[in-house]
Amino acid sequence: xxxxxxxxALRTFLEGQVRLHLRGPASIVGDNPFDLAVSGGAxxxxxxxxxxxxxxxAITAKHLELGETSVEIHAR
Length: 76
Fold this sequence. Notes:
elongated, 4-stranded antiparallel β-sheet, 76 residues, mainly beta
């Protein structure tokens, strides 16, 4: 994930933490919360699905100043 301005340019000097919330049959592997100042405005985590448990997985990223956004993954 990354923080971009309205023109699509990566905001490399943005600070603060992104906290990830997950719903569904999975877990987050990686730093949570994620510090943007250390990473230059971009980061990554892995989503590990639970064996034998298909379903919808919703991930929400929240930042104190930027608000929040969500994505969905469908595990089979």
